[in-house]
Amino acid sequence: MSQAQAATTSSGSSSGSYVIPPGRLGNLTPEQQTTLDQFRTDLSSDANFPWTPARHDDATLLRFLRARKFDLVRSKEMIYAAEKWRKEFGVDDIVANFKFEEKEEVNKYYPQFYHKTDKEGRPIYIEVLGKLDVGKLYAATSEDRLLKRLVLEYERFLTERLPACSRVVGHPVETSCTILDLNNVGLMQFYKV
């Protein structure tokens, strides 16, 4: 089930009474729908924009529109800047080729993982900051490789985790629930994160 198909479902969450939030698939005002349609048409017909239907689905376009209060000009500026950054940073190459062999070692000094879902079907992401050991972390990997891992994990989040959660719960899942475990975190350690 795609996120668009899941958008037509008004229930299916564990509570059985999921309500689609405003400005999301399945709950757009006529003006918002018109703006979304225009955004999609403008981007998909622009030879200078790297249009990819799978990556530029309506849920993605709506994130940019909501971020700019459905201002089409500002939303276009934002998505073009995001695509420029993706190209400059080499996101597609990271997704295709990056291997994070040091993952097990890094997780000893900076535990972070997904675990189940919340009542709305959102994946739960947990970071255990009390076990963060910056010195040992950077002995195991570099800041650049940590950033590439973050980019890779976020891409997987968008392309694998969110669609899987949407299929299971029966409505679009577009966000996660993040838990920062601050047990044993002192103020000085918190600023090192």
What key attributes describe this structure?
mainly alpha, 9 helices, disordered N terminus
Description:
The chain has 193 residues and is mainly α. It has 9 helices and 3 strands; from the N terminus they run ααααααββααβα. The chain has a 3-stranded mixed sheet. 15% of the residues are buried.
Query: Total number of helical segments?
Result: 9
Anisotropy-based shape: globular
Q: DSSP strand (E) fraction?
A: 5-15%
Task: Decide which structural class fits the backbone.
Answer: mainly alpha
Overall pLDDT metric: 90
Query: What is the gyration radius calculated from CA atoms?
Result: 19 Å
Query: Can you count the beta strands?
Result: 3
What is the terminal separation in angstroms? 38 Å
Report the order of strands and helices.
HHHHHHEEHHEH
In helices, the fraction of residues equals 40-55%
The neighbouring-strand order within the major sheet is 1-2-3
Major β-sheet profile = 3 strands, mixed
Sequence stretches where pLDDT stays below 50 over 5 or more residues: 1-15
Brief synopsis:
Helix content is 53%, strand content 9%.
Question: What's the layout of helices and strands?
Answer:
Blueprint: H1 3-7, H2 30-45, H3 58-67, H4 72-89, H5 91-97, H6 103-109, E1 112-117, E2 123-128, H7 134-140, H8 143-169, E3 177-181, H9 187-192
Parallel strand pairs: 2-3
Antiparallel strand pairs: 1-2
Helix pairs in contact: 2-3, 3-4, 6-7
